[in-house]
Amino acid sequence: MDYPTNSMLLTWIIFTPVVGIGAIFAVLALRPALKLSQRAVDQASRAIGLAATVAVSLLGVQLWRAFDGGSTSLQFVHHTIWMRQWNIEYFVGVDGLSISMVLLTAFVFLAAMIASVPWWGRLDDEHHPHFSKKRVPGYMILFLLLETGVLGTFCAQDFFLFYVFWEVMLLPMYFLIGIWGAPPRTDPDGRVRGGPYAAIKFFLYTLAGSVVMLLALIAIYYNSGPARLVDGSLTDHTFNLVYLTEMGRSGAFDRVAPIFGMAFPKVIFIALFLGFSIKVPMFPFHTWLPDAHVDAPTPISVILAGILLKTGMYGILRFNLQMLPDTTWWAAPGIALFGVISIVYGAFVCLAQKDLKKLIAYSSVSHMGFCLLGMAALTPQGISGSVFQMVSHGVISPMLFLIAGVIYDRAHTRDINGFGGLAGKLPEYTGLTGLAFMASLGLPGLAGFIGEVLVFMGGFGASDPNFRWFVVAAVPAVVITAGYYLWTMQRMFLGKMNDKWSHLWDMNWRERLTLYPLAAATILLGFWPAPVFNLVNTSLHHLVGVITGGT
Amino acid sequence: MSLHPFPYLWLIPALPLLGAIINGLFGSRIQRRFGETGIWATAVLLPWISAAIAAWAFVTLARSGPETALYVKLWGWLNVGWLDADVAFTLDRLSGVMCLVVTFVGSLIHVYSIGYMRGDPGYWRFFAYLNLFMFAMLTLVLADNFLLMFVGWEGVGLCSYLLISFWYRDKEKAVAGMKAFVVNRVGDAGFVLGLFLLFWGVAGTWQNPPHVQHPLPDIILGGEGAGATTRAATAGTVVGSEGHSLPAPQRVMMESIVSGIVHGEGAAAAAPLPRTSVKFREVERILRDPARRDAFVSQRWLGLSLVTLACLFLFLGATGKSAQIPLYVWLPDAMAGPTPVSALIHAATMVTAGVYLVARLHFLFALSPLALTVVATVGAATALFAATIGLFQHDIKKVLAYSTVSQLGFMFVAVGVGAFWVGIFHLVTHAFFKACLFLGSGSVILGCHHEQDMRKMGGLWKLMPVTAFTYLLSCLAIAGFPLFSGFFSKDEILWKVFSTGNLVYHSGGFWLYVIAAVAALCTSFYMFRSFFMTFTGKYRGEPHGHDAHASSPSTHDSGLTTHDSPAASHDSPHDSSHSQPAAHSSHLPHESPASMTVVLAILGALAVVGGFLGVPPLLGFLPNWFEHWLEPVFGGSEHFVHWRHYPHAYEWGLMGASVVIAFLGAAVAWWLYYAARSPIPGRLMASGSPLVRRVHRLIYNKYYVDEVYGRVFVDGGVGLSRGLWWIDARIVDGLVNLAGRIGALCGMLQGWIDRVFVDGLVNQVGDGIVAGGRRLRGTQSGRVQTYVYGIVAGCVMFALLTYAVPW
Amino acid sequence: MRQDLVRFGPELALSATVALVLFADLLLKGSGRRRFVLHGLAVLGVIGAGFALLLLPSGDRSIFSGMLAVDGMARFFKGLFLVVALFGILFGALSDEIPEDRFGEYLLLLLCLTLGLSILSAAQNLLLIYLALELVSLPSYILAGFRRGDKRSSEAALKYVIYGGAASGVMLYGFSLLYGLGGTLDLAGVGQYVESLASQGWGSQLAVVAACLFSLAGFAYKVAAVPFHMWCPDVYEGAPTPFVAFLSVGPKAAGLAALVRFFLVGYGAPTFWMTPGEFPWPLVLGVLAIATMTLGNLVAIAQENIKRMLAYSSIAHAGYMLMGVAVGTSEGVRAVMLYLGIYLAMNLGAFLAVMAVRARIGSESISDYKGLGTRSPYLAALLAIFLFSLVGLPPLGGFIGKFYVFAAVLHVKYKFFYFLALVGVLNSAVSLYYYARVIKTMFLEKPDGEAASFTLAPSYGALLTVLMIPTVALGIWWKPLADAVAKMSLVVR
Amino acid sequence: MTIGVPHYLIVSGILLACGLFTVVTRRNAVAILMGIELILNAAILNLVAFSRLVTGAVGGQVFALFGIVLAAAEAVVALAIVLQLYRAFRSVDTTETTELKE
Q1: ipTM
Q2: Is residue C272 included in any domain, yes or no?
Q3: pLDDT tens digits, residue range C477-486?
Q4: Which pTM value belongs to this model?
Q5: Contact yes or no for B235 and A533 at CB 8 A
Q6: For the segment A8-66, what is each residue's pLDDT rounded down to a tens digit?
Q7: Enclosing domain of residue D42
Q8: Domain residue limits at C321
Q9: What is the number of structural domains in chain D?
């Protein structure tokens, strides 16, 4: 394994939020001593949270500047032994794929953090207290814990470590949705919905997937060949992803006895894919997403859509593709099929939505379907399109959810049909919404387009002719997408002004602070995607080489 | 085709974009601070500058030899595998013509809008959109590859959406915009599919696609795609999208290209062929190569040749943009936008993009007679279809809208029979006279206080002479009166159709000619109908006053802060009850301000003389500049399209015929509608003859196509979505919840059994001691276990007795 | 003999403590210092036993003519029991469910129980196993019914004694048969006899099989495995919480230890495989594990009383641990031991938290936990940690335990075990549901009516923290425990 | 005929079955305790018989003695608990006990 080892930068990035958590705990501990008022504690923890997130972003910038896009090997590796008995190592490092996700994470979390402090602008009235004024220290602690989990997931190069971080993501999410999300309510059809329901649904769903992944992890470990720990000592099994990748590619797992009559690589492929595709989410496993999105507070929806869905795709690329290329060829058509179903199905379901957030949620299902399709195409265009779609969706969907949050903070409803003619009252907001919608429906010149067109193009060129049909089936979804976004636009902003909303006010600085950077990124990436490609290309090139070399 | 570096090319689209950004971001503030002048100062100036640059570029191009094109690459955009899309602009002779038309007509219409939009609170918004449109349209025209063209392609769609629903307060207008965008999106889907087919087809890997994107073994690769491909050869790869991120081989290639650019011809021509490309000129070069062309054409999918499929999909895109059957439905509704928009976008420029696309891809379409036939047939059908609808419309803008659809049909007929330059020629002349007509109608509408119904007009000849005169000129032009621009272009089209030998079905040329001729007749008729109804006779409109505006609902809350038209319910800006009190002093129509009439005059003049660019050799009193100019572009496809050769007599005859057609249509219109004297139309309407009524209703309601589409696609789609939503909520999600509930249920059941059994025991104990007797209470549930345990015990004992007998 | 006595040191220390406590309890009747003295004596006794344990001469050997094993496993379990006993004593001191005047009685029984446990975990002889089992059982019965006049407590005790009696009777019957067949009471002897049968196909073994199934009843009963689990919820609900906490760890561990010895040592590990002609014990134990964990998890979902819920959860955990026994490898045994080590911390912690809540709001029904997150954040947070650890979420200790067990199961690359592991993980996913229900109630639901926030008594706080530290720390750095287990685990032949 | 192991086994088996059956069918605590005693006796009978006829060693008989003692001890505890329960139940009126039945 050839990489410069033991740079602390990633460790700092990952654990800076933990430092923030410590600081908040310190404030809480010192509260009685210093006779701090509740308000003081809240403000302090907000400040700490913001500081930590900013710090992560700055470190991220440093990472970006120092990253060498030209090399395929891992960079900024920090590599020490954690548990010798199991050959578990603390092994973090980034290649192009990881770093793009890490930077996206830092960016989106910063936006989400800004969106979760009640500063810089009016955001509620006395009748509807804003979630960001509730149990602030707890919120900030969990928020930062979540950030650590996500960053760790993207940086971990040790399977066990990856799994630990992967699970660490769940726990804070549960509370963030459950406590700060929508209060429980009873739907017209008598089903109880709301934050708690959505939270536990998300939690159970994802856990069910990841426990199966745990089995795959152990099975892979016991069937992995000899390897070396960082200190050079020889071990008979390993969690080290670099080794595991090599073994997987060299077909070491093909020699393992089949399980239940199915070849071992296929079994672990399916097990891993199950865990990841629930997070993506892929068609039959998507139902946790609308609930979670709708009932989560705005910043959490932002993170959920912008980052957490990407962890699933990242896992698929990092493990299924990279480690099991041959099996990937076997599974690709199936994955693509489900991807297409997600695309079309999600788009159609969007058309029927009345709740703005639910609409956006289903559009996420649709757009993540593109990632699956492109990934399964196994062509350069397809895979880099898939990754770019991850990035662009990671920029656009946060915008959309922030937009939904803006209107919800004012009107305390998200019923699309309830609005109308808002354009006259909130011109700036309307403009940004239009931009976000256009970006999301893949208007050329905005970020969303590049991912989609690359995915389609890659799909068309896939070695399996069936993929052409998949693409042909998926392309009409583009029309549907335009349909539901424009229809929403028209129902909310155009037409007669609904006097009920005459009290609404246009964007405040807090919202500008979150939305304009994202908007700028959307436009910039649309015309100049080079920054992303420069990061990911070399390692994707490597990946594609492996896969195509695989057969 | 050698590339000539022209570093200022990018300014042509960039300047309008700049204007759009300025007005889009700060417009509202500027308008509050400096008034409307502050807005149009930038918004009108910048397009003129880019028009100037375009002219300069045009001249430069003309100077630098026939086989050249001006080229500038800004930065790499999407260079992945074989995909080689840059943000780069090319100006060859074809795009040069388009560029001039767009910038020039566009700038004129900007000027026109200064006056037309006066007093509208959304002034800044309007000009921002208009500039944005210019940017998109110019990108479409100048793009050097499909993907960048697609940026413009959808960009213009977006702008037309924004501008159609400019007065968004009015639901109809909002919906019209939406319709336009979605219908266009259908076409765009076709466009991208066609593009993919082309891309992979050209690569020649359709039949047996590669795992790795290898280069062809027998072809030394070159061009910018080549770097990608050579790297792909090493490991099937994703190539950097930026020069400096690219590996050595690619950089070398780029240098070679640059050098090729620098010393013109030779070097670049020598540049070896790429594997495949999205660059127009690269694809053309590849298809010029016989081996590669055969490799491409021989591939089939769905029983059709790949080239045909690609053409048809791309043509689907064209029909969407250019409002041809089956996707024409959005254009008439698009008239909801302000009239300058109708003139610029829905007459002169955007809707011609489809024609431009087909012409731009002549080398592709020329390879597929079937595709060309489809294009020509669809064009002819649309021409006639729309013309008939145009016959009975009362809304002046609707008339013009259908006439636009029809004229676009003519253009497609032209390119469909392989007469690409003629299509472009008609495109240009049409841009002049149709823009003039629309602007004239706009002037009329403004004059008549937002009245669009021609039955309420009339007699405007005296009231607004300039408008009337220019309108007349344009009518003559579009009807094809001799020596007017339309005459040359349309007559050339008819002749080419007649003499084409390119259609797949026998003697198709003749029948297409007949259809086109009838369409031309209708055109002449309804255009003059509109002219006579509008400008002759006496004014039939009732006086307009403030009542008209009092009735308009949105005038109540029209503060400057709300960015919509105070007179949203009318197709026209508020006729400036604030800014132009004069307008209201007299209730009679009035001539429009100079800024508009001047534009009308210029366009009218062009509508007259524009035709002399392409005088057919038959008349030959002037050289056919236009054909010669475009010859280098389309020359490549010449030997793919065939012409039947007729003696000159035929040509004279046809020319005469089309003259007759023009006069006939005008005469009938004069007879029926001049000064509204003739009673016939009224009687015809009144006549109880069911046939007449039914035909009239059918045509007047546009053959109910909108209704059918609405039922089938809109309702169908929404219905489907509802169904899927139900499935999602009830079934997909239901299963999940069901699983959970089942689990919980099992739990409860088990717990219940536990409790009943156990508690039963203890309760019985309680009974047994306290209230003796009642033994059997609550033991039913216990019985089950009883038996189970009993059975177990019995079995065990039996087994024991059987086996434990070694002793 | 002296050597044997030396190696019997811990038990002797415990017995001495028992005697001392008994006398002190009698002598100091009515004295104010009574509680304090008893408390001190008991704690010191346990600590003394701990020292005795540490001072045991190294090296495995069996004492009292092979009746008791003094090997690594025995040491480990004895240490475990002493820790549990220590916490049992402290809990008892904290709890209000143990009346002032009967504190000595409580300690007495608890210590006897511990003595029984430590013998049970080391016994190698059928007779001794039976004695130790009864020595565990009898005090348990009494402790279960410790709260006189409390109906639930008495009910619990009755159920306990009846099931216990039946189970141990059946076990005794099984033992008697084994004795008859093997001709010896020595586990090793029995093992040899069974191996001698191994060649003849398991038809010939049916008597042995039946005998072992009978014997299994006793162990399953102690472990609270299906179908001998029914006493568990009622006893947990009815008995005083400190004892329940003790019960949920101690006897379970002892039962597992005895089971391991009985099957892996006694019955004989090599003959443990599902080769033709052998009785499929892994299958039997595996099915037992599946049934146990599935039933435990499913039923727990429906519970309203948190102690009852924890009872079913402890059944489920017994199921997980049984998987480790079922694979019958030394790795499996190690996994079980490590699991027990972590389980001790988190389960005791959970029960202590329940006690703390009960002490404040005097209720054990989950619905009364509403708004605990705001009323006493620290307590709620700790309880949440313990519960999440019981779910097995990283980076908490519970995950490591589960990881070891599943790893052991999967390492035996055999079809049935893949299935077993799958069921296991799915179960642990299901278990999230009811643990999270408590957490949801604490954090996500508003307390109905007035809900004064209360402060945690420092004693509780300290003890909870003491238990929380290993629960968290072992999830991140479990090397010490793992090494200890690796060193002490017995090597399956 | 000589009395051999099988006979003892049969008797003890019958005892065991009766005991088990009593335990699970009878609802009265005291009866159940008797059932348990039966089970224990079956086991003890086995032990004695085996030590006499199979092994010849005394281990079985020692075991038997222990068994008897422990059975007694268990019975004591159990009866004590039953008494306690009796008190508990007597302190409540019958309606409550009937409620408990559902």
Answers
A1: 0.86
A2: no
A3: 999 999 888 8
A4: 0.89
A5: no
A6: 899 999 999 999 999 999 999 898 888 889 899 999 999 999 999 999 999 999 999 99
A7: 5-89
A8: 280-493
A9: 1
